[in-house]
């Protein structure tokens, strides 16, 4: 019995050890999972911080681009050439009244002296600019630029500025500044609504803090930490373990803007991650000790949900990084990922609002009734307005980066455009009419004004084109010209156009020693048709005769109607050895064919043709027409339905 009892006791102890040993892999796996979860969570948070920094940098760039667009519009106002201080001062104040970013607009000359400052009354004494290096670069390059943080000469407060050149006859004459206080840029950081323990900061190209989402006033104008500045010096973006200016250990992500040279930092206290992992370890330990199987199932479910949520969030972030402002993350999965997704969606909403504000700020450009194209010096389109979209049918995104030649209708040869660009290179201005083609293939005539914008070196930096649709005017002009030069019934050339073509043909024949024949044609049997079937039937016969004449002649010949049933055929480049008899016999044959009227009646006509040849029968248009008419009467007398050449009377 003792042996049995021993064995039972030993079995119980063995089971205990076996259970303990069975827990060892779970404990080791739990420890590994805790460590892996720490790394995963840190990687996730660093990625989140980096993505947040990128989004904030993009939002700042969008706000600066919007402000730069408004500043460029102001810099192009005529009140600056020459300077009309009072008028421009009021215009600048009006712009600032609706501006959410800028606080001041300052006009500066080449020496750095402020000429006008909206923060001071008009005419008040003004100091020199607080960013002389930026001014010198603007006058040197002729390009807009963004300053680092500086102290304003008038307000003695921190500012950053966007500066644009004021061009006068292709040269920089003045500089126009838009002063932005750091606290307004700080609103962009604060609008991101970062989680507790997170901080965002905006640094200029020197690493000086412009603004922060927290404690902005305390640290503005101070440099970032040494280790952070060293890392930023070697990397445009990245993550590192550092500490905040408040002295708290943190993980920091940073990214630098190519547009401004500024960097956005997003950091989170390391204690957040450590506390999170400690809580997770405590919870997991308790679950393993009491509900191991349930804990494993819940952990598996949690992992699946977390990874699915992160995949969805990552896909939304990737789409946003590729420029999709409408990409939102579905708020699914664990609470943290839902919160992150909602935060991301709020950032996307802020981005959409910022882009909407940019479009609103460009209303001066967009609301123009004339289509406007702005292109870079390589003639690649960088912006168009709504009037352009409505006129051409192309969406804005379809033309950005493309050459304006996509509007070419093909109706103008290369010589036209060569002359255009010669004029543009010489005077920086061209004005005229062009025929262009819309996206749907339809053509329109536009009145275009094209200007070349030159930098301080006199080289072209941009092109600006304004187009107005004058198709109705051109069509009306074309219709009037057609009425003036064509017969309204048959649409054949009339006497006026015939005279012009005959004159041109004789000049060409004289140069090239060619023969030209003037053939006067009169219909036989037309009057009875008019009398019997009415004038409408007569008009139908004349239209049919015109069509048959056009079909029987060569492409370079002309059939004209002088009136009634009188026509003239102008045959150019006639072979002197064979003459035009074969062509005219083809005409006679075509006209003899029966004509079926709309009433069902079938009628027939023929023609009598008289031919006068250049230079044999004369060299003047009127003489050739008279002698052709005389020959036509000879054909009438010969029995009609035939042709006769002019013969001098015996």
UniProtKB/TrEMBL annotation:
What biological process terms from GO does the record include?
A: signal transduction
- What residues does the PAS domain cover? 354-403
Q: Where is the GGDEF domain?
A: 514-648
A GO term, aspect molecular function? catalytic activity
- GO CC terms, sorted: membrane
Q: Which domain of life is it from?
A: Bacteria
Quote the SUPFAM superfamilies the UniProt record gives: Nucleotide cyclase, PYP-like sensor domain (PAS domain)
Locate the PAC domain: which residues?
430-482
Q: Name one Pfam family in it.
A: PAS_9
Q: Where is the signal peptide?
A: none
Name all HAMP domain ranges.
304-356
Cross-referenced InterPro entries, in alphabetical order? Answer: DGC-Regulatory_Protein, GGDEF_dom, HAMP_dom, Nucleotide_cyclase, PAC, PAS, PAS-assoc_C, PAS-like_dom_sf
Query: Can you say what this protein is called?
Result: PAS domain S-box-containing protein/diguanylate cyclase (GGDEF) domain-containing protein
């Amino acid at each position: 019995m003792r042996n049995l009892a021993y064995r039972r006791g030993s079995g119980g102890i063995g089971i205990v050890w076996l259970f303990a040993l069975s827990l060892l892999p779970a404990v080791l796996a739990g420890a590994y999972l805790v460590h892996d979860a720490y790394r995963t969570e840190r990687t996730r948070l660093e990625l989140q911080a980096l993505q947040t920094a990128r989004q904030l940098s993009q939002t700042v760039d969008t706000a600066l681009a919007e402000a730069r667009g408004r500043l460029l519009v102001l810099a192009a106002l005529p009140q600056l050439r020459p300077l009309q201080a009072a008028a421009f001062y009021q215009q600048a104040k009006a712009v600032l009244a609706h501006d959410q970013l800028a606080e001041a607009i300052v006009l500066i000359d080449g020496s750095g002296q402020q000429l006008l400052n909206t923060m001071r009354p008009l005419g008040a004494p003004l100091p020199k600019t607080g960013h002389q290096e930026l001014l010198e670069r603007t006058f040197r390059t002729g390009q807009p630029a963004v300053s680092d943080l500086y102290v304003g000469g008038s307000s003695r407060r921190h500012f950053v500025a966007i500066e644009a050149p004021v061009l006068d006859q292709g040269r920089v004459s003045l500089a126009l500044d838009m002063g932005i206080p750091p606290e307004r840029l700080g609103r962009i950081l604060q609008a991101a609504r970062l989680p507790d323990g997170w901080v965002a900061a905006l640094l200029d190209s020197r690493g000086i803090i412009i603004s922060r989402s927290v404690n902005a006033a305390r640290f503005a104008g101070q440099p970032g930490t040494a280790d952070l500045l060293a890392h930023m010096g070697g990397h445009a973006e990245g993550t590192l373990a550092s500490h905040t200016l408040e002295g708290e250990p943190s993980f920091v992500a940073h990214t630098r803007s190519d547009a401004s040279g500024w960097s956005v930092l997003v950091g989170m206290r390391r204690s957040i991650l450590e506390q999170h992992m400690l809580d997770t370890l405590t919870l997991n330990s308790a679950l393993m000790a009491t509900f191991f199987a349930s804990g494993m199932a819940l952990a598996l479910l949690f992992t699946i949900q977390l990874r699915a949520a992160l995949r969805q969030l990552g896909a939304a972030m990737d789409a946003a990084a590729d420029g999709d402002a409408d990409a939102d993350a579905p708020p699914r999965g664990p609470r943290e990922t839902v919160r992150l997704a909602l935060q991301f969606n709020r950032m996307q909403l802020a981005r959409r609002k910022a882009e909407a504000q940019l479009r609103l700020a460009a209303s001066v450009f967009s609301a123009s009734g004339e289509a406007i194209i702005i292109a870079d010096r390589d003639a690649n389109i960088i912006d168009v307005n709504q009037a352009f979209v409505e006129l051409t049918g192309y969406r804005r995104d379809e033309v950005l980066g493309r050459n304006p030649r996509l509007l070419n209708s093909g109706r103008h040869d290369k010589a036209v455009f060569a002359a255009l660009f010669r004029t543009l290179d010489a005077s920086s201005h061209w004005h005229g009419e062009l025929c262009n083609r819309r996206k749907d293939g339809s053509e329109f005539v536009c009145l275009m004004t094209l200007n070349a914008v030159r930098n301080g070196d006199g080289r072209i930096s941009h092109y600006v084109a304004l187009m107005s649709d004058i198709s109705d005017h051109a069509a009306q002009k074309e219709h009037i010209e057609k009425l003036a030069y064509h017969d309204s019934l048959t649409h054949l050339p009339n006497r006026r156009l015939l005279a012009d073509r005959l004159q041109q043909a004789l000049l060409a024949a004289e140069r090239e020693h060619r023969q030209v024949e003037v053939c006067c044609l009169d219909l036989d049997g037309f009057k009875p048709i008019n009398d019997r079937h009415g004038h409408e039937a007569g008009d139908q016969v004349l239209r049919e005769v015109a069509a048959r004449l056009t079909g029987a002649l060569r492409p370079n010949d002309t059939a004209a109607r002088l009136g009634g049933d009188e026509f003239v055929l102008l045959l150019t480049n006639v072979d002197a050895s064979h003459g035009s008899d074969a062509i005219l016999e083809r005409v006679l044959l075509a006209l003899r064919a029966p004509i079926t009227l709309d009433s069902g009646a079938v009628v027939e006509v023929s023609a009598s043709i008289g031919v006068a040849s250049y230079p044999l029968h004369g060299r003047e248009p009127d003489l050739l027409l008279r002698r052709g008419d005389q020959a036509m009467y000879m054909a009438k007398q010969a029995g009609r339905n035939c042709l006769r050449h002019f013969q001098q009377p015996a």
